[in-house]
Amino acid sequence: MTLDGRHVLVTGAARGLGAVLARVLADAGARLVLADIAEEEGRAVAADVGGHFLPVDLADPASIDALGQAVAAHTGGVLHGLVNNGAIATNVGGKTFEEIEIETWDRVMGVNVRGTWLMVRAMAPLLRASGSGRIVNVASDTAIWGAPKLLSYVASKGAVISMTRSLARELGPDSVGVTAIAPGILTTPSTDYVPEARHRHYADGRAVPGPHAPEEVADTVAFLLGGGALSLTGQVLPVNKGFVFG
Ligand SMILES: NC(=O)c1ccc[n+]([C@@H]2O[C@H](COP(=O)([O-])OP(=O)(O)OC[C@H]3O[C@@H](n4cnc5c(N)ncnc54)[C@H](O)[C@@H]3O)[C@@H](O)[C@H]2O)c1
Asked: What CATH number does the domain located at 8-237 have?
């Protein structure tokens, strides 16, 4: 897989799946811009993989617009790939639908749903300018199989899946492909809180039994960012080693 010379922006790149994506996409030849609210960790990842770090708060529309301008200045007005990976994915589980606070619901929706929309809006001119823009939205297979006690997160990822389909139709005429991946539970720090028995349940339920490493998900993202993946626009790929099927 080669992404040689393609400018790719990854949000939420300071840790977890995003940091792994940064490493794998850099190895594939991408010229990376990494964005995150966690500046110190984000800059360290960027230094490690040879990328350029820019701060962003996905909850803040003005911050996203400023990121758009900063990316344009850095890349010369062109972006080949956008990975909407940044999200509130930690500390949102464990409460029933009757227990979730309104504040938590709004915060998760603000970052995961509105943030994804505004990122696409901010980057669309740059993606169009590339002539072969690709967007990969990181959803979750919890939105497909209906994970309990995770409603705000599941709802947000369901929205990401729906937005992927509509955006694919709006951006398709400009040859910008939009796909979503729906990973299962990964071996990232954000899932450390999940009890060992639950990890085992997922591991045993996969068509390919065992844990799922973020590196394996990153390989799929690298493919989706490439020129050859336009045929998959609008599709949602459960990248979960066969825990649920699309
Ligand atoms: N880890 C999993 O098992 C798993 C499974 C399915 C999907 N996902 C998805 O993969 C993506 C990455 O998950 P992860 O496990 O690495 O989570 P994580 O919590 O470790 O990382 C999320 C990143 O997003 C950043 N972020 C959060 N709020 C932000 C904001 N307001 N502005 C800018 N950046 C912000 C964080 O600083 C962090 O670097 C998420 O979209 C998550 O929903 C993860």
From this structure: 3.40.50.720
